[in-house]
Specification:
It contains 14 helices and no strands. It is mostly helical and about 350 residues long.
């Protein structure tokens, strides 16, 4: 039987098929992250609890975002935008990077969480058809950026402002090129951290790329690169970076770079799985049938989070990983009201034309 209009005869929409595919990919990728952490932990006597908690936080956050975005596509993202600064203020220890200050501020969970909050506010702005509410939500995003600056997180202020500016221009960008540009931005940030860690750049470029980074942080990156090169297959085991033999690594316990930490502790497969998890989030945003500006706004916030995580340890905090999952879920949710409208037309009598 042939379908008529936009709804196939079997009642399954093309948008539903796209969501199903991205959900299956997400299950496989996150499942692979969990399984590989258990494998490397068993073989290297590591501690996989941190990775497992991060996988659980992303999964739970994504599911919660999908449900909340389907029920209340404007109110829930707005509430999440307000929750980010509240969580930041309620947990002053959330910022892990005061010993690793850089010119743009503290690279840590505070900047990441506020960036996700600004992204949620801008997504809510694109989800509402009321101009006044849209303006208020964008002012909320601007207020989050100001609050980040007042709190001393200049990095958070810059990232929040970037999310707001990119969201304002997202209506003029096609979804495919936008997602490709975000992928390139993240790859460039991660690649720069790797190049500094491996010390493969000319002296001038190395100093420029690492400009403002403390010698301690660069030393941690060198330690992570040394471990990754020596244990490229399985790594030294989850949670065992601090036992690498370096006094600096032992004192801190993390290299302050998610890709380098995965390489050192879980080998090349761990890095590939981390990259696959990020690519899955962008893939879900590319495949969703939500408006392109909303999907691209969430993509900008998640990409900036990935950039911060490439030079900091933001992903070590459950609030950040859960927040990333929530934002991705909100941006890929399909409001129930739209589902009802698409299925409101009664079926035709007789055979389909």
């Amino acid at each position: 039987m042939r379908s008529t209009g936009l709804v196939p005869a079997d009642g399954v929409s093309a948008g539903g098929d796209r969501r199903d595919v991205s959900d299956v990919v997400g299950v496989l990728v996150l499942g692979g992250c969990a399984v590989w952490s258990l494998v490397t932990a068993a073989l290297r006597d590591g501690r996989p609890e941190g990775v497992l908690l991060a996988v659980l936080a992303v999964s739970a956050g994504y599911a919660a975002g999908r449900i909340g975005g389907a029920l209340l596509p404007v109110a829930v993202p707005a509430a999440c935008a307000l929750a980010g600064p509240v969580v930041t203020l309620a947990a002053p220890g959330l910022d892990p990077g005061r010993g690793f200050a850089v010119p743009l501020g503290h690279l840590g969970a505070t900047a990441a969480l506020l960036t996700l909050s600004a992204g949620a506010a801008c997504c809510a702005a694109w989800a509402t058809p009321v101009p006044g509410v849209r303006t208020a939500l964008r002012l909320l995003a601007a207020g989050i950026a100001v609050a980040a600056g007042v709190a001393g997180s200049v990095t958070g202020c810059v990232c929040c402002a970037a999310v707001l500016v990119c969201s304002l221009g997202a209506g003029r960008v096609r979804r495919g090129p936008g997602v490709a540009a975000l992928t390139l931005l993240t790859a460039l940030a991660a690649g720069t951290a790797w190049a500094v860690a491996a010390d493969v750049l000319p002296a001038g470029l190395t100093e420029s790329a690492a400009g403002g980074l403390s010698s301690r942080r660069v030393g941690l990156w060198h330690d992570a690169w040394r471990l990754a090169r020596s244990h490229w297959l399985l790594g030294v085991g989850p949670g065992r970076f601090g036992q690498s033999g370096s006094a600096v690594a032992a004192a801190d316990g993390t290299p302050h770079s998610a890709p380098l930490q995965m390489a050192a502790e879980q080998g090349l497969a761990g890095v590939a799985l981390l990259a696959a998890a990020f690519c899955w989030l962008l893939y879900a945003l590319w495949r969703t049938d939500r408006p392109a500006p909303q999907a691209l706004t969430a993509g900008v916030a998640l990409s900036l989070l990935a950039v911060v995580a490439s030079v900091g340890n933001a992903l070590s905090f459950t609030a950040v990983t859960a927040g990333a999952g929530v934002l991705a879920g909100l941006a890929t949710a399909h409001p129930l009201a739209e589902e009802a409208e698409s299925g409101a037309r009664p079926p035709r009598d007789g055979p389909a034309e």
